[in-house]
Amino acid sequence: MEILFQEDSSITMSSDTDVSLSSYDEGQGSKLIRKAREAPFVPIGMAGFAAIVAYGLYKLKSRGNTKMSVHLIHMRVAAQGFVVGAMTLGMGYSMYQEFWAKPKP
Question: Label partner for 6 (CA 20 to 30 A): which of 22, 46, 74, 104?
Answer without folding.
Answer: 22
